[in-house]
Amino acid sequence: MTAHEIDYNIYGEEMQYVEIELDPREGVVAEAGSFMMMDDGIKMETIFGDGSKRDSGFLGQILGAGKRILTGESLFMTAFYNTLSDKCKVSFASPYPGKIIPIDLKKFGNKFICQKDAFLCAAKGVSIGMEFSKRLGRGLFGGEGFIMQKLEGDGMAFVHAGGTMAMKELKQGEVLRVDTGCIIGFDQTIDYNIEFVGGIKNTIFGGEGLFFAKLQGPGTVYIQSLPFSRLAGRVLASAPQGGGKNKGEGSVLGGLGDLLDGDNRF
To answer: How is 114-141 classified by DSSP, letter by letter?
Structure first.
């Protein structure tokens, strides 16, 4: 399995984008909706699966697309190829505030496991599939937020972290417990499972969910401080109900201001 060798630069602070430089006939694959801009000479093509060698042929493409359905992603991915004799550049943007993390798969034994919505783009030839769990607990209690993807190959891949990123190097037998949504990814040497929080008060009043992700070393773990599900939940919770204008937010009047303004109806 040989992926295309690509060069890249990451720009920005809170809302980053990655600019990938492609030599002639080199390519990169990306999630639909992550494209930002490209030079003249880049050809864009919508493909089934990830376009890797293991997805060659009609059956391979169907299997590749099926894996993406199981992880909740689109049937299609987008490939970008350099059709000129000179170098060209194509850029992909973060979906929300956070950091773009470059992953050299060769340094992770040609396999990296990540959250299903963390993947941004990768060199052509990298395989993007579902990480099947042999443990019943992960499948029954992990929830949609703990469906993991695997990135396989010997090229570069890029994943996105919401908020601030923390990298932890776990020693042999060292355990880290993490909110399932806060995981970005980890290497294949990490043993991971779902663990019940425990305790009646924690279960009913804790507000942190019923389960932790238990990660045991050795290996590298990437953690994000702001999962998209948490960000979306805060936005929805702060949105005014029924399309009203919440002019009193943060003021002493609060809801009284809305009442005087005529926004509240009885």
So the answer is: EETTTEEEEETT-EEEE-----HHHHHH
Kindly report, residue by residue over 203-228, the tens digit of the pLDDT. Answer: 444 444 567 888 999 999 999 988 87
DSSP states along 42-108: EEEEEEETT--GGG-HHHHHHHHHHHHHHTT--SEEEEEEE-SSS-EEEEEE-SSSEEEEEEEGGGG
Q: Which residues pair with 150 in a beta bridge?
A: 113, 129
Neighbour order of strands in the sheet with 7-11: 7-11, 17-22, 88-93, 35-38
Three-class secondary structure of residue 228 per DSSP: helix
CATH number of this structure's domain 7-238, picked from the four choices 3.20.20.70, 3.40.190.10, 3.60.15.10, 3.60.160.10: 3.60.160.10
Task: Check if the beta carbon of residue 68 is closer than 8 Å to that of residue 74.
Answer: yes
Cα dist. 204→79, 118, 153, 159, 198 in Å?
46, 30, 43, 34, 10
Distance (Å, rounded) from C-alpha 193 to C-alpha 137? Answer: 7
CA distances from 226 to 79, 159, 186, 218, 250 (A): 29, 14, 17, 25, 23
Helix (H/G/I), strand (E/B), else coil: 229: helix
- Residue 153, token pair as written in the block: 């190959």
Every domain of the chain and the residues it spans: 7-238
* Mean pLDDT, range 38-57, rounded to an integer: 76
Taking alpha carbons only, the member of 195, 183, 193 closest to residue 221 is 183
pTM for the whole structure = 0.77
